[in-house]
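Appendix B. Chain record.
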Amino acid sequence: MRKLFVRSLAIAFVAFALLFGLEFFIEWSRAGYPAWGSESWAGVNNGKLVDVLSPMARAYNNVLAMLIATIGLAIPLTANMHTPKLIEMFLRDKINRWVLTFMAFGAAHVLWVDYMIGPQFAPTWAISLSILLALAGWAILIPYFFYVVRFVDPSRLVVRLREDANDIVKRVADRKLDPLDSQTLVSTRVGQVGTIIIKSIDRNDRDVAAEGAWSVKLLLDHYSQHKSRMPKEWFVVDRADFVGLSDEALEMLNETKTWYEMKCLLQLEHGFMRSLEKATDSVSTFSDALRVIAIRAELNHDEQALRLAIRFFNNYLREAIKAKNLRAVYDVFHQYRRLGRELVDRPELLREIGLHFSYYATMAKTYGMVFAPQLAIFDLGFVTRRAYERASPAAGELLKEVLALPHRTADDVHSMAVKAKLILGGFFVENKHDAEAELVRRNLGDVATDEIERAEAALLAAGRCFFEVTDRQLNLEYVPPERRDPLRKFCASLTLARPSGAHSVITVG
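Structure tokens predicted for this chain:
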């Protein structure tokens, strides 16, 4: 933004110089190219000089009045809408300081020169400087107006806050700032980003909310580059930094060295929770950012930061279920599934994720969200298939979690859950995992033959694109052509053993 201001200022100066220079040259040539001193009033009528400078003083007053009116309206209004810290940011900005100082100096200088002029005294150099300063003031005015407008743009506020926080982190890593004092400074910056996110959601400004969420991700990206160089004092926090946390929670933060990640991820969680109330379509903004942060932690081999991100995923599921917001549950399960795919080579984490899927699917059922557990079966089944493809040690435990999720309630058969398990059974047949296919077959032993046939027909007829517009868009029931024959074989193995409409209850030992 400062580069834009300097560039627009240079353009204004060049335009003014060319226009006024051309005007002077035309008039000078029309007058027959008089000597350079012929246009001066010095020594002839110094009162004329006063008459010239008086309008200039009024012009400066007008410029100052316009600037102060613009700042007085724009800054408080924007601060009220986004963050009260905007006023502090405005006053700390170097361009704002220089422009306002320049305007005040120019206005005072004109008055001083006007006072100096006497009957026998013409301060020609000072008069020339006043004229040049007046021209420069008007040349600065338009670019500065644009600068102020851009300054209060919420997108730019997010960028400024992020850059300030990153600068603090870097300077602490370089041992140029005290780590304890810097904790407060950087926490304030991160908190202000969170405030802008929340207020943007309140005003249905989804674009700014998304930019704020992504800025949190960029904050953690930058931090990961310097975390190993941070002094040990940086990682120690107390109750003042996290009001409300227990002594045990603070101790864990100090042990895992994740207070900065916690501070950033809390801002995402606040935005997610506000989205549940006022902008459900923005939920995916926060769950997607959280997934990217978790994957980046895995790439950086930051185990504690990764586990913290997974815990926040669980928070998202809990809050979405408590709000009975099916769209949010649908989205978070999807992002959790994508995270599980990236962690397929981490069996210990896959086991935990499988348990979390099962836990929150059961919780959703308790809250009366019958459809949510069926979504969990589809997504956990996807993670399970990826685990078997990579021969993960956690694959068998994931399968148990899938099969433990119910596909019926009393006499009510949940067709989507049945379909998810049929897809899983077809996968095992295709990849010759006979024992696993038999486990799925026994699990579905209480489903009537006609239900199996209807589910099979629906799966084979399902198109790749879901018939409504969704975040995933891919039809959960879609089976690629190369996997349809194994699905048919698996379904046939279920239907051949029992007559139409019959079913038997078989438990998995």
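Further analysis of this model is presented in Appendix C.
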